[in-house]
Write a structure and sequence with these properties.
Helix 1 packs antiparallel against helix 3 and helix 4 runs antiparallel to helix 5. It is built from 5 helices and 3 strands.
């Protein structure tokens, strides 16, 4: 999988120095976008879309009310990822269970942002980073919730089990 493993109260993963640097750089860029990005930025429009696309006045009122909170929450999540990366010991990053949703949000936001900037056909390097972020996201989800759901949605029961 992605190298995330479940330990008491947390998930852990060893990041190479290059992986850690890329993820930290992307998360820092995302934080800058949340705090300094232009109101009409296409990435921000994807990450905090209009609640009323057919009503400009209602959309503006909602954006004035909700957008700062939405982007502030996203900024806080990216900050948590940076803090966890900075707290790594010998490349091992520990993500407490209560911080896993912050990581999931940030990894997803990074994928959306990169896709929006790259367009429909990203270059090879961007495509590789997008794949890697998706791989991290899937691996974190698998490690966080190791019990599969059966088709009826019963937790902890593998599909096909009696």
């Amino acid at each position: 999988m992605s190298g995330f493993r479940r330990v008491p109260g947390a998930l852990e993963r060893r990041f190479s120095p290059g992986e850690e640097a890329v993820l930290a750089s992307l998360a820092a860029d995302l934080r800058r976008l949340f705090t300094l990005g232009a109101v009409d930025d296409a990435v921000l429009a994807r990450l905090a879309p209009s609640a009323y696309p057919d009503d400009d006045q209602a959309a503006a009122e909602f954006a004035d009310f909700a957008r700062p909170r939405i982007l502030g929450d996203k900024d806080g999540a990216a900050g948590a990822v940076l803090a966890d990366l900075e707290g790594a010991v010998d490349g091992v990053v520990r993500v407490a269970f209560d911080r896993v949703p912050l990581w999931l949000r940030t990894l997803t936001d990074l994928r959306v942002a990169l896709h929006e900037r790259a367009g429909e056909f990203p270059d090879e390097e961007t495509a590789a980073i997008l794949d890697w972020l998706g791989w991290l996201l899937a691996g974190m989800l698998d490690a966080f919730n190791p019990e599969p759901l059966d088709p009826d949605g019963q937790e902890g029961v593998a599909a096909g089990s009696p």
